[in-house]
Structures
1.
Amino acid sequence: MTDFVTVCAADRLIPGVGVAALVNGHQVAIFRLRDGSLHAVGNFDPFSAANVISRGLVGNLQGHLVVASPVYKQHFDLTTGICLEDASVSIPVYAVQESAGSILVAAEAVSHAA
Amino acid sequence: MSSKQRVVVIGNGMVGHKFLEQLVEDSVGFAGIEVTVLAEEPRAAYDRVYLSAYFSGKTAEDLSLVKGDFFADAGVFLHLNTRAVAIDRTAKVVKVASGENVPYDKLVLATGSFPFVPPLPGKDREHCLVYRTIEDLEAIKAGAAESKTGVVVGGGLLGLEAAKALRDLGLDTHVVEFAPRLMAVQVDDGGGRLLRRKIETLGVKVHTGKNTQEIVDGKAARHAMNFADGSSLETDLILFSAGIRPRDELARQCGLVMGERGGIVINDQCLTSDPDIYAIGECALWGGKIFGLVAPGYQMAQVAADHIAGKIDNAFQGADMSTKLKLMGVDVASIGDAHGATPGALSYTYVDEVAETYKKLVVSADKKLLLGAVLVGEAEAYGTLLQLMLNKMELPANPESFILPASEGGAPALGADALPDTAQICSCNSVSKGDICAAIEAGACEIGDLKSATKAGTSCGGCTALVGQILKCELAKKGVEVKKDLCEHFAYSRQELFHMIKVEKITTFDELLAKHGKGDGCDICKPTTASILASTWNDHILKPELAGLQDTNDYYLGNLQKDGTYSVVPRMAGGEVTPDGLIAVGTVAKKYGLYTKITGGQRVDLFGARVEQLPSIWEELVAAGFETGHAYGKSLRTVKSCVGSTWCRYGVGDSVGLAVRLENRYKGLRSPHKIKFGVSGCTRECAEAQGKDIGVIATERGWNLYVCGNGGMRPRHAELFASDLDEETLVKYIDRVLMFYVRTADRLQRTSVWRENLEGGLDYLKQVVIDDSLGLAAELEADMQHVADTYQCEWKTAIETPEVRARFASFVNSDAKDENIVFVEERGQIRPATASEKRADLIDTVTV
Ligand code: SRM
Ligand SMILES: Cc1cc2nc3c(=O)[nH]c(=O)nc-3n(C[C@H](O)[C@H](O)[C@H](O)COP(=O)(O)OP(=O)(O)OC[C@H]3O[C@@H](n4cnc5c(N)ncnc54)[C@H](O)[C@@H]3O)c2cc1C
Ligand code: SF4
Ligand code: FES
């Protein structure tokens, strides 16, 4: 069973604009895309070592839904966390859902089978 | 002992150097040759044709014609500062000034010419100068700094170019010409009159029919020039530009056959009367003529190099002396028989006194062939007419249409397509249309590639437009489409998107995407759209429907730093700040513990603010009267100023006042990339305006406007755009230049790169902005006025809009701080801790 943590009211999310939340001691970046879908990934940018992913621009590239790091502009796949420019680097991905007007994020990252 | 053939070249000027390049290029022929170059100047060959650019900031290196390590790579021995003083044709040695003898098998004289100075009493006085070498230009610069007025003796091509240089150096400039008109060789009376008028409106005084007799002490100025008609003219500096004379003294000394009035006689192989001695360039006399242009010299260089390397069938066959020039902003062109000297020749003349243009065609008696032309004020038809004449192409039934304005049904463009393959397009480098087409066929799809593949357009540049036309035409024929898509979501260029947004009144990214794009967008097209929307409609960039398009810098209205904090830069227009303002900035910095630094843009930057601190910091700054400095935006950054006439003993204009007004007019303008201005109070240029996108320098008569300069990664000197403007005209021109840039540049293209890619170059920009050739001027001004009228301080609006202000939080669900942001102290201020400092925790970290 995944534990979910309520982070904020659903109307705090503007489509295309990320927010950061503290979830169970981790920093998580949460986005709502234009189609209404929700995504949550780690807020830590492995390239710049700063907590800034929530401030990146989102969109799609070569068939992936992505967020671009605002520092050095690498793109991360929002569903797998893998960096498009360097597949050996990835950021954690969290389950996220909307329920009763609130946004809920999983307390632990999705573990990817290698 | 070397068994190689020893070639000695005297002179490393433009033609001498071209000769070396041609010789080396033919590697087979070159293999058995050893080359020694004796050069009198202290530096290797440079571009004399562009010599004047030395005054607008080009350095000797910029002008150098030596590509890479040419001499070392080719194994050519270059001896600088080495003047040849005698030739012993029997012993086959050249004697140099230091006394050494240099043996040769073949000798090439490429000694060029020297400026003729009329033998007047007083010609050797101080600051009586000539215009031929970099050293001459240095002397002129130094002389101008101690002078108020300058006179150019000679109103020919070079004289007018020199006059422009003097004027740009800030001198009150006169041209004194012996003949009754300017440019007597190239233009006729009518053209000369118009040229004079145009040049006088530019502030240069012209005195024709003046025969200078002596130069004596002046009363108000350094010299007085006394003329044969009894009049006189006072001046501080004199520049002789009364023609050139071949440097043939060596040839004379060793007994080669000379022309009656000088010049070393050569045959079609460029050989002198001695079969082992060649002469090329401006020292050579062929068919009774000296060719004072570089293109014929280059042809001679090719012929001589071929001949030495054993290819003996190439011959020099004379050269066309047509010229097109931009003199002080006035187009002047002269083609072929400009004076109608051919028996039976007929002419057409069109004079427009309003537009100040003069055009004349000279045609054969049967009106079938073009023999010559004169164009003054507007020379667009030059390329077409030159090709018609050179290729002896049959004229249309109404040849006058070439010089009539388009509205009169004129100007049949001679499509590049119509030219035969043999047509010579680039005369400097002997490149035919066939050569260009072959290079395109081989894959050169851009003008730059084409230039490096064929060398066309790399010397005087006069053929660039035609080369561009041929390229376009050939690519169209091949069905090649040039890809300029912004990104995978929009198959359009930024310029096209700009147009759609404006014309279709699109105000959101979603609307643009729905109408013209696909997918969800990305970090390329979103900020680009945001920028276009801001330039066009100028809404607050943090409105909910725009917020998601902004780069983090724009979103947080601050520059993101390496640790995730932001910087705070209040605007200090023109770099001016009151003591109270400084105290307020200091107080805020101290209160929030920010690192404080003076920027390169004449203002103060406060670093290390966390997102949740930004609104309160700005609240305090706004309360103290500050506005956002847009340090984060692709927008106007700073208008750097010098202290100017208010305080400075040299200032001639109030540079700070103007800088403040300009900064306040253009602040907030979003553009393809950042824009910087500079305003200096006099030519000493303490504000470095010529390194800015827009540079303004005060003159005694107003303001000189420079455009498209750049510091940064690839510095580019700004170019003089217009002179002596009043403030109203200045602002009008800046409005137009900037809006035109905003509309047509690519994403993240600074004005410098935009300008370099602008087809038609600076002239085209001037036509659009000054002559309003596209009929856009009023619209560009109105668009800029809209941006100015709708300005708002982005920070003020942000802190006063609760919904926007609430977004400045580190976490949506907590007031905690980001623990990863750690500072240590250095030189009394904070700085981000390094990774090892954070881990080791050995150093005291600072919490604020
Ligand atoms: C703060 C400052 C350095 C300083 O401490 O003096 C600075 C800082 C930055 N510069 Fe700069 N530049 C600063 C003056 C300059 C200057 C000097 C000037 O303006 O007179 C130049 C050269 C002049 C020019 O632009 O032509 C300059 C040329 C650049 C460039 C290269 C631009 C180019 O065309 O080659 C970049 C990179 C870019 O913009 O793509 C850059 C980019 C940056 C960025 C934005 C890099 C980044 O993305 O983080 C830096 C962050 C600014 C911040 O955090 O506030 N900065 N930068 C100066 C701020 C001036 C101001 O008051 O706004
Ligand atoms: C300001 C200016 C603008 C011009 N604009 C144009 C233009 O727009 N279009 C155009 O076609 N042409 C133009 N010209 C003319 C063009 O520059 C010349 O045609 C060209 O430079 C001739 O090349 P050259 O090698 O024959 O002579 P130069 O370039 O003068 O080279 C001769 C070299 O030989 C050296 N030398 C002479 N005697 C000796 C010696 N005894 N020992 C050693 N070295 C010696 C000289 O010092 C010099 O360096 C312009 C010239 C000037 C000055
Ligand atoms: S540019 Fe001229 S006016 Fe301005 S400070 Fe320098 S010397 Fe003075
Ligand atoms: S004609 Fe001079 S560069 Fe082509």
Note: Chain B touches chain A at residues 488-489, 510, 519-523, 525-527, 544, 547-549, 551-552, 555-556, 560, 562-564, 807, 809-814, 816, 818, 820, 835 (CB under 8 Å).
2.
Amino acid sequence: MFALPEVASGLLCGFLFGFVLENAGFGSPCKLTAQFRLTDWSVFKVMFTAIVFTAIGLTVLGEMGWSQASAVFVPPALLGAAALGGALVGAGFAIGGYCPGTSMVGAVSGRADALVFLLGLLVGTVVFASAFVSLEPLTFAGDYAGGDTLGDVFKASNWVIDAALFVAALAIFWVGGIFERNAGGAITAVEAVAGASPDSVK
Amino acid sequence: MHNTSCAIRPFWAPWFAGLALGAVLLLTFVITGHGLGATGFTTRFVAWLGLQVAPHATLANDYLGGMAEDGHPLSSWITWQVLGVVLGAGFAAWRAGRIRWQVDGERTLGSPRRLAMALGGGLLAGLGARISAGCTSGLGLSGAATLSLAGFVFLATFFAVGLIASRLVRGVK
């Protein structure tokens, strides 16, 4: 039933993923939602750095002749579905304090509110499944025919797209740094662990 | 016990955490051909839970039925990956003295209000992630790393609506 390589690779990739997310501070709803208040830009900075690193890595591996580089899973360009899903996950993040993955990190670092967020996630999935017959068209909404990747749309090579994203990442660090200095600095681990709970001292 | 703050280790610098996250994501693509995720598991967990509580309704459901029909909806790579996330995040938090039992957000919102908002936020995120067939990890991060349009569109509306919603609704601060 469970092939050993699958168990091992799942546990390995997941362990490293969780280890990095927690060390980035992404178990803290205060720190996560501070991105939307523009006072702590860690979410933008970490996500964009990772996206650029992996994108360049996949491009390099492809150039080096690793045949699987072009076979990695690219989500289909169902842009209406992606836009609507992104909007709902963004609203849920601002209201609930987490996204699905980070709520798992929050829960194991002792946050009861993250467990409740996870419970809400299950309820939302049940709501979707119950209403699937009427919601199904939304999951195919906005199918873009011009290709699945940025390279297809802008008729550019992956190198050009990678370079543009690298510049965008630098801009995010620069602009984010200005906002963070004006807000008195990013949220520290001590502040995040104290949390927005009654006995916390800031 | 009263002052544990000196034992709390700082978070990684964002550039370092970002490079580390990129390395993990690239490793995942090289090993498995796809990226990292989260709601792939919670969806399968709902299918599994459904089989225990209401097997007929679950198997008859157009969305969950296919996942549940072999009787082992949890038998999937994503289940092990999520178990890994829990272990890895727990290890990191324990090692750095960052585990603390709390309702985060209680001070600014009060406990009942904070928990109600967490439940409502989770519900919206769960619904949204099924419509887009992916969440911030699966579609936003992993999708954008393959330079996919859907990944970047997801991130754009995710951040735009998050910015607006955080101004309309007082959340955790």
Note: Chain B has a mean pLDDT of 94.
